[in-house]
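Question (not urgent): is this output format expected?
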Amino acid sequence: MTLTGPAVVQAAGAVCWRETPTGIELLVIHRGDHADVSIPKGKVDPGETPPQTAVREIAEETGLAIALGAPLGSTEYTMPGGREKIVHYWSAEVSDEAIAGSTFVPNKEVASVEWLSVKAARAALSYDLDRDVLDRFSARAKARTIRTFPIIVLRHGRAVPPASWDGPDATRPLLHRGLEQSRNVAPAIAAWAPEKLISSTAARCLATIEPVAVLTGLPVKQSTGISQDAWEDGGGRVHKAVRKRLAAGVSAVLCSHGPVIPEIIAETAALTNTPLDAPLRRAGMLSTSEFTVMHVSSEHPDAPLVAVETHGPAFL
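Got this back:
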């Protein structure tokens, strides 16, 4: 059951992990105000999306700057007082640089943080729901699919309708609403710390990805291969663009168009030997400023996708 509605409290967190000579270690927090041990997480603030919340909460509770990995599902429970709560989780590999740069200081909310083996972390956690999330992580680790890179496919924001524009279609600009959508969705995309930003040459796509470029400090590479004009002309350019991204093996954002995105999804599925089932096809049917994240195994990029998730701005 998926909980929805105004009474539901939304929260997000991450299973932070690192690889050591003796195996994988997980980060747990000792909460002084609750006198418990848990996975770091926190409530979604107004105007936030869960991915953005997860990154912010990890920084606030542990002092670590992280990038999200693949999703680990969610937990749902009833809070004291009767309100329902859903907590969204991701995995997050923590680099040595992030650990060295941690700004954590013991405080009233979090008394300490501790790196533990998977077995020790499971024993230390205070709640069964946290152990359930850890078990999902462990299953990925055993399958050697815990280290992934994301291919993020973003549909441009709401643009001036074709019937209201006299110039070439590629020059149609975003509406004010589309500009708002693009600014709002950028922090969610940045939660995966993309290393490459690639956009269709259309003005509406370039304007949509610009806030992501500002947040990340990355340049935007323009690609005719994922433009609507090239897609309408045919020629297999989408296949070439997707194949190049998979071969590169780094996190990337592809900003494209409604008619083109289903083909990007389908090509990714074909090149990773992933069945193009109904949920994956739906992941290509994006509204303006929504995005789908396809998590590719770093160790076996031609293996089936590890996970697929779709998000959007806090408002549409």
